[in-house]
Each structure stands twice: as structure tokens, then as C-alpha cells.
Amino acid sequence: MLALIIAAFICYSYFWSILEWGIIGVVVYGLYRFVTALVASQDQQARKPHSSFRPSSFQAESDDPLQTLTDEAPSAGAIIEEVDDALENEAALKVGKEGELRVDRILYRVAMDHLTDVYLEDERGLTQIDHIAKMPWGLVVIETKTYGGFISGTRNYQVWKQSFRLVGSNKYYLFQNPVCQNFRHLAAVRHVTGLKDHVSSLVVFAGSAHTSQRVHNQIVRINHLKTAMRQRPTTDYLLDWKRDAAWGALKHHAQANSGRAAEHLEQLKRRAQ
Questions:
Q1: 141 pLDDT more than 90
Q2: 135 - beta bridge partners?
Q3: Helix %, strand %, coil % for the chain, to 5?
Q4: Cβ of 154: how many Cβ atoms within 10 Å?
Q5: Which of 32, 164, 261, 273 has the smallest number of Cβ neighbours within 10 A?
């Protein structure tokens, strides 16, 4: 009888010990999940770019091109002004930075890594690039434009035009086709990295501009950027070690040229003279 009592007591003690350890395990696991979630949340916040800009959610009323917007030269008698950039001569520079920040936030989610506001130098001199994204298959060079109004081409494929009235506009702003502008950036990236077939170009429209069919076919709206970035390329994937070596070279050159913004601006002014 005594043996049964002792055995029952031992079983009872073991039961409560197991129960206590089980409760402790559940509490510890819960604390672990809470702490890891908190750290991940803080890390995600830390990765966001620090800026006073708060992007507005403006978009064109439709992503579709306007069939009534033609890619012809301005009509006779129209006032024509050649500008370095369509937006920055019509609106505050803040609007352009706002568009770049919106692209930057998307790249944080879809790219393996990315660089923003990059200065690179090749045999032609310095050039400034809005974004370079590292993807599994290679590199994507992005030019961001936050245009408003109506954007269409001209008979010269290197020149686009902007107006702020669809019909009967008496003033047009002529500016360099940003696709051609990004060719210059592609050349600089290829020069620095030694890559050829695994560097691609994207021109992103982050503003409210309506476009002609020709312009529409050459740009990506910001609300389609994630889809465009995730599309598989037609070429083979770049080997991981080559991609990582190219990215390392880009980061090195970007860091070395990070303080040369004023020099780049002076170069642009001399070319415009």
C-alpha cells in the first residue's frame, strides 16, 4: 500500500513538473516570437529613406495613351522653349524628388539591393543616375520622371515635347527623350561593371502626365513598376559571382563619387553653353 502511495506521489510530481515546464516553454516561445517580430519591424523602418517628403498619391486618370495626342512637331506659330528637363522648369524640384522617393520605396521591396542618386564616371565624364537595382538576373538602370501635362514625341526621336493643354496649346517645352538620356547611364554602368547583356533600362513615369502612344510604349507607370521589375529577362541569368562582383564595383564607384554633385552640375552648364 505504501508503495502505491509513493508511486502515485511521484507520478503526481512528474505531472506537475511537466506541466510547469510546458507552460514555461509556451511563454518563452511567445516572447521569442514577439521579440523577433519587433526587431524585424524596426529593421524595416530603419531601411526606409529619411526624407521630409511625403509622396502624394497622384496618378494619371488613365494609364492608357491618348489617341488624340500626336507625336508631331508643334504647330506653326506655337511658342517653343527648349529645356533641360520638362518637369524641373515647370514645377518645384521637390515634386521630382517626391517621385524618386516613391520609386525608392518600391525598390526596397522588390530588388535584392539598390542604389539611389548615383554618380559614375567614364571616358565621357560624370553622369547622375536616379536608381540602379540589383536583381537575380542582372542590373536595372532606372530614370524617374514626375511629369504633368501632356507628353508626346516629335519627328526627332531624341526629342519629346510637353504642353499643358491638350488642344490648341500655344506653348511647348522640348526636352531630351529620357529613354535616350538613360542610354548614357547604361553606358556608364557597363563601363564600371564590365557587363554588357545583363544591364537593362527602365524609364518610370511617377507623375500625372498623359502620354501619346509612342511615349506610352517606352515608359512604365509607377503603379506597374513592381510587375515590370519581376518580369524574367529574355537572356540567361547572370552568374551569381559575376553579378555580386559587378555590384561591388558599382558601390565602390558610387561611394568614391558621392561628393561630386556640384562638379557634375558645372559639367552640364558647360555643355549647355
A1: yes
A2: 138
A3: 45, 20, 35
A4: 18
A5: 273
Instruction: Give the strands of the sheet with 171-176, arranged side by side.
Output: 79-82, 171-176, 159-163, 150-153, 210-211
pLDDT digits (tens, 9 = 90+) for 210-240: 999 999 999 999 999 999 998 877 777 888 9
Q: For position 178, what pLDDT does the model report?
A: 94
Residues 6+ apart with CB under 8 A from 18: none
User: In terms of DSSP bridges, do strands 210-211 and 159-163 run parallel, antiparallel, or are they unpaired?
Assistant: unpaired
Pairing type for strands 125-135 and 138-145 reads antiparallel
Is residue 114 within 8 Å of residue 107, measured between CB atoms? yes
- The CA radius of gyration of the chain, in Å to the nearest whole number, is 28
Range with lowest mean pLDDT among 38-42, 177-181, 237-241, 267-271: 38-42
Sheet strands side by side (includes 113-122): 113-122, 125-135, 138-145, 199-205, 220-221
In the structure grid, which three cell numbers stand for residue 106, read together?
518600391
pTM of the full structure: 0.71
- 171 neighbors 79 (Cβ within 8 angstroms): yes
DSSP state of 75: P
Q: Cell triple for residue 171?
A: 506653348
